[in-house]
Amino acid sequence: MEMSVGGDTEDSRETFFLLRCRSEVATLATPEGLTADVRERGAHTSLSSPHRTTAVGSGWHQQRSRRQVANTVHLFCPAQPQRRLCHLGDSPDCCARMGPLLPFIVLCLGAAVPHRVKGPCHPNPCHNRGTCEISETYRGDTFIGYVCKCPQGFSGVHCQHNINECEKDPCKNGGICTDQVANYSCECPGEYMGRNCQYKCSGPLGMEGGIISNQQITASSTHRALFGLQKWYPYFARLNKKGLVNAWTAAENDRWPWIQINLQRRMRVTGLITQGAKRIGSPEYVKSYKVAYSDDGKTWRTYKVKGKDEDMIFRGNVDNNAPSANSFTPPIEAQFVRVYPQVCRRHCTLRMELLGCELTGCSEPLGMKSGHVQDYQVTASSIFRTLNMDMFTWEPGKARLDKQGKVNAWTAGHSDQSQWLQVDLLVPTKVTGIITQGAKDFGHVQFVGSYKLAYSNDGERWSVYQDQKQGKDKVFQGNFDNDTHRKNVIDPPVYARFVRILPWSWYGRITLRVEILGCTEQE
């Protein structure tokens, strides 16, 4: 049924509404004493012939128009106090029954029509902010005249049902779904994040690789041995560090030792790996510890047992060499992280790595180091061969972060600013960061000191990443040695299938090992 309010006729007391009927039941009623003037709206309606009998429901009366209006029939409405429209399901006594129906107009005539009939969408029958639309709509065999357009999260004829979004299992990677009104939420395991726990957030933040610089690592004290010749500085506290002095050790008289990492920006920290070391041949390690965090380095909060106002004590190491990992659920979001050793074997000696990601998520390695990105996906402008020997070919497929061996990186065949290293990610990908590393060629240190970044979706038309403030090509700072990782955040990120690193300055030859950070997400 489609209904719309009309305007006044030549009789100022008249008002009308339009009914589009596709059912055999037309339901309408007017206040007592009024007449319904039914006027033809279609060439073949049964009302078009004054000689054809029109079936009228019980309580209704039919006669020819006294005003001799062509093709017009008067219906006298039964008594319906305080009723304007006969609703479906009511007694058929208040309804006109007709044969094949086409659109017609009903004019309710009388001495007092207090207001216009507004139709089935007034008031709005749809719940939860559903939109009512006039429509030729059936519900089974019943003609209802409107349809409710439901907002996302609701269903039902009148949008009365809240959809349980959790039935579709939207939370990935072990996330727990909680249904809400027209929405849902996912409680993610500590190492995942995102609306659907789709982003992995457990990558190393840079203690082992060197992204976290020495200046970012401080401690309450430093142990000095052998008459002060050995200094176990906090910046030695890097996971798997080698050497005679290869960890941080607190001073013997330090009763409340701590070691602190300044991440330089708020990050999401989801875990911590700890490791001991040997000092003068004796195993030393941290057996248990607490963790605190801060946004300004002044006001600190200690990590608590979930649901309790009780400091969490994490289990540490059981020997000097095997790493021990603990996850933070919920994760920490902070710029500064401190580790407070609680119980130590001999001295409090520690090597460590923080795990996590950028606050936005989507900053996981895309596969250069792991091999997920295969050799054929990595190409370059040129290739260098040491001593012009094939066995010492520094091909692009070797440009993988932390790759080991005598030939363990890509080196360009020419030393100029037209060189490039390209990675085909196969699908458009959100790229949020680049990690670079140099290498050694027979003892010669080689690395890229700065570079530009280009990206493309077809491998032919390229855009160079821009410095948003200066309005020109962005030059990223690269490495200062052959081994340390250098991470650059791409903010805002780029969405592309192809990524090119364009070396801009270098030491020795142009040599790169890289990792690309991001996630497979359409723009």
Automatic annotation (TrEMBL):
Residues 43-63 are annotated as: Disordered. Transmembrane segments: none annotated. One of its GO terms (cellular component) is plasma membrane. Keywords: Disulfide bond, EGF-like domain. Disulfide bonds join C150-C159, C188-C197. It comes from the Eukaryota. Residues 117-160, 162-198 form the EGF-like domain. SMART domains: EGF, EGF_CA, FA58C. InterPro entries: EGF, EGF-like_Ca-bd_dom, EGF-type_Asp/Asn_hydroxyl_site, EGF_Ca-bd_CS, FA58C, Galactose-bd-like_sf, Neuropilin_MCO_CoagFactor. One of its GO terms (molecular function) is signaling receptor activity. Residues 45-62 have a biased composition (Polar residues). PROSITE patterns: ASX_HYDROXYL, EGF_1, EGF_2, EGF_3, EGF_CA, FA58C_1, FA58C_2, FA58C_3. Signal peptide: none annotated. It holds the Pfam family EGF. CDD domains: EGF_CA (cd00054), FA58C (cd00057). Residues 201-357, 362-519 form the F5/8 type C domain. SUPFAM superfamilies: EGF/Laminin, Galactose-binding domain-like. PANTHER family: EGF-LIKE REPEAT AND DISCOIDIN I-LIKE DOMAIN-CONTAINING PROTEIN 3 PRECURSOR (PTHR46806:SF9), F5/8 TYPE C DOMAIN-CONTAINING PROTEIN (PTHR46806). This is EGF like repeats and discoidin domains 3. It comes from Poecilia reticulata.
